[in-house]
Write a structure and sequence with these properties.
Elements: E1 10-11, E2 26-29, E3 39-45, E4 49-56, E5 61-68, E6 73-80, E7 87-93, E8 96-102, E9 107-114, E10 120-126, E11 134-138, E12 141-146, E13 153-158, E14 163-167, E15 175-183, E16 186-194, E17 200-207, E18 213-218, E19 228-229, E20 233-236, E21 242-249, E22 258-264, E23 270-276, E24 304-310, E25 314-320, E26 328-335, E27 340-347, E28 360-364, E29 367-372, E30 385-390, E31 393-399, H1 401-404, E32 412-422, E33 425-434, E34 437-446
Antiparallel strand pairs: 1-6, 2-34, 3-4, 4-5, 5-6, 7-8, 8-9, 9-10, 11-12, 12-13, 13-14, 15-16, 16-17, 17-18, 19-21, 20-21, 21-22, 22-23, 24-25, 25-26, 26-27, 28-29, 29-30, 30-31, 32-33, 33-34
Length: 447
């Protein structure tokens, strides 16, 4: 049985809405007291909309706001969803946004939001997956993944017919699902299997929405040498097939030897390119003397791809390591056919790992934007900074105070997050305190 939003108790409320002509500022949630651990706040930008939500797990309330492509308010409502749902995964498919509301128990709820007509539908269901780490939507079918030490578990669920299918073929030790995308009605899954010593494989496997396997192919890098895959991201091509990008190493114990790109078309034909570290002209751009390359092996420790971003022509990757004494982030821009456009590096400061997980990477043509906070107790890096790069050259550094300053007496922003919307437009979200009242605020800014 399906459940529409009419089967939920919908709460109509009048919420305070203030606007600033300079910034397009909106108060989304009039009062949030106290800031409870069960409060989840996020913003989901689309091509022609900006959706934001506030979910209160303790009260069982979901607040949704939808703005159109001009950042004008078109929907603002609260819904009663039941208590105990404390995690939100989201997926965007055209004009629809899917929110998967869950906890570590079997009860889940799918919210389907049409951003064009503001229709909201809820589908509660129960499965034996606990924590949902990733999900994708294909028509009426959800693909949900739980990462487990003994191997990852996948379930397909049709939220219209309530049919559930479990895949167990990936539930083996040293088997990990690295990425999932949907194209032409097919779930395309990147699966990494690690064997003994240098034995490993990176597979691309396709399933239809009923869980039937359609194809399986192994991803290979150029040459006879057996490289070791360290990371992989599956990026749909605007024309046909996919680009698979990531990092590799040449031998065991070496965490980073360079980047690779594998183009794979609809016929599963592959075209692979590698960009070794020694060919990356901008890898040491953050140093005062880029030509001085002493102890370069230190920069190969646990290099991770933290952010990727793709537009119609280019793919950008931001890579760094929190295990090296010289903190930096390296960027590389490649085309969808694998050629390197440019690469560069920035010196950034942080004390604790995880800082890059909250960074923002974006592209506007070939211009690259990077927003990074760093550690708040380092005086020389007190806030978010906006980096803008053209053709691999740093052109501007801006602090977020340029955008967050208010004319009120004592504004205080916490829980600040930045999101790329489109072109040079960004959305900033935060909790603002004025005269003792806390409000969730989102604002449109242009760099």
């Amino acid at each position: 049985m399906t459940h529409s939003f009419f089967s939920f108790f919908r709460i109509q409320v009048f919420l305070i809405l203030l606007s600033s002509s300079a910034f397009g500022q909106d108060y989304i949630f009039p009062e949030i007291i106290p800031m409870s651990p069960g409060l989840k706040i996020d913003v989901i930008p689309g091509e022609d909309f900006v959706l934001s939500y506030v979910m209160d797990a303790n009260q069982g309330i979901l607040t949704l706001t939808i703005k159109d492509g001009e950042f004008n308010q078109k929907h603002l409502e609260q819904y009663s969803i039941g208590r105990g749902l404390n995690k939100v995964n989201h997926e965007v498919n055209g004009e629809k946004v899917y929110l998967l509301l869950s906890n570590e128990g079997p009860s889940k709820t799918l919210a389907v939001i049409n951003t064009l007509n503001s229709e909201v539908q809820f589908f509660p269901f129960s499965i034996n997956l606990g924590k949902i780490d990733q999900f994708k939507v294909n028509g009426n079918t959800l693909l949900m993944i739980e990462y487990l030490p003994q191997g990852d578990l996948i379930q397909f669920y049709d939220f219209q017919t309530e049919m559930l299918i479990t895949l167990s073929e990936f539930t083996f030790p040293k088997t990990s699902i690295w990425d999932v995308q949907v194209k032409d009605g097919i779930f395309d899954i990147l699966v990494y299997k690690k064997g003994k010593f240098r034995s490993q494989s990176l597979m691309m496997i396709g399933f239809n929405d009923s869980g039937s396997k359609l194809f399986e192919t192994e991803i290979s890098l150029p040459g006879k040498k057996k490289y070791i895959f360290r990371s992989a991201k599956l990026i749909p091509s605007q024309e046909t097939g996919y680009s698979i990008v990531g990092t590799y190493s040449r031998k065991q114990g070496e965490q980073f030897s360079g980047y690779y790109h594998v183009g794979i078309n609809d016929g599963l034909e592959q075209n692979a390119t590698i960009h070794p570290m020694r060919s990356l002209d901008g890898f040491f751009d953050y140093k005062k003397n880029p030509g001085l390359r002493i102890n370069t092996n230190n920069f190969r420790r646990n290099m991770q791809v933290y952010q990727t971003y793709a537009n119609r022509k280019y793919i950008a990757l931001a890579t760094s390591s929190d295990n090296v004494p010289k903190e930096f982030v390296h960027f590389i821009l490649v085309g969808h056919n694998g050629e390197r456009v440019y690469d560069t590096a920035l010196k950034v400061l942080y004390e604790l790992g995880g800082s890059f997980s909250y960074s923002t990477l974006a592209l506007n043509g070939k211009e690259l934007y990077f927003i990074f906070e760093g550690n708040s107790n380092i005086n020389v890096f007190p806030s978010f900074k906006f980096y803008q790069m053209k053709n691999g050259q740093l052109t501007r550094i801006l602090k977020d105070q340029n955008y967050l300053e208010e004319k009120s007496k004592d504004p205080e922003w916490i829980e600040i997050k930045y999101y790329h919307w489109k072109e040079n437009k960004f959305i900033v979200s935060g909790i603002e305190t004025i005269n003792g009242q806390k409000r969730h605020v989102i604002r449109k800014i242009e760099i």
